[in-house]
TrEMBL record:
This is Uncharacterized protein. Keywords: Membrane, Transmembrane, Transmembrane helix. The chain crosses the membrane at residues 7-28, 34-54, 66-85, 105-125. It comes from Saccharopolyspora endophytica. It comes from the Bacteria. The lineage of its organism: Bacteria, Bacillati, Actinomycetota, Actinomycetes, Pseudonocardiales.
């Protein structure tokens, strides 16, 4: 496995797992299976892309490893965008109409708040996967 693959793989995995959980939770909430799969994919793809991008930026030294603030700032923008893609894309794919979420500014602000938790998890998982586990 190349160094680039080893660094970017966690970002791809994190996005994919987030999409899988989204699909499962959407099913549990009672949505039709087509809606759940679409919602999961619409979140997994942008999160995986942004995750790989974040990992690549860390590999290049743009976002320093071990420093949380630059990664948190990255996800402060990337996470709300990924959620917006999910919301609009799912509505477009399942409902056949383009529409923004209700109160889009409030939606984006809330997603920005949530992004901090996602950034913490992202850094934690990437540090564990890239370094081969804690203590190495």
């Amino acid at each position: 496995m190349t160094e680039t693959t080893r660094i970017t793989a966690p970002g791809l995995v994190i996005g994919s797992v987030a999409g899988l959980f989204t699909a499962l939770f959407t099913l549990v909430a009672g949505a039709p299976p087509a809606w759940a799969v679409t919602a999961g994919l619409m979140l997994a793809v942008p999160l995986a892309a942004f995750g790989a991008g974040c990992s690549a930026l860390r590999l290049r030294g743009v976002l320093r490893g071990g420093a949380f603030a630059p990664v948190a700032l990255y996800w402060l923008i990337a996470f709300p965008l990924a959620r917006l893609v999910q919301e609009v894309g799912t509505r477009l794919a399942v409902g056949d109409s383009f529409s923004l979420p209700p109160q889009p500014v409030s939606f984006l602000i809330y997603q920005a708040l949530i992004s901090v938790g996602f950034a913490i998890g992202f850094v934690w998982v990437q540090e564990r996967l890239v370094r081969g586990g804690a203590g190495r």
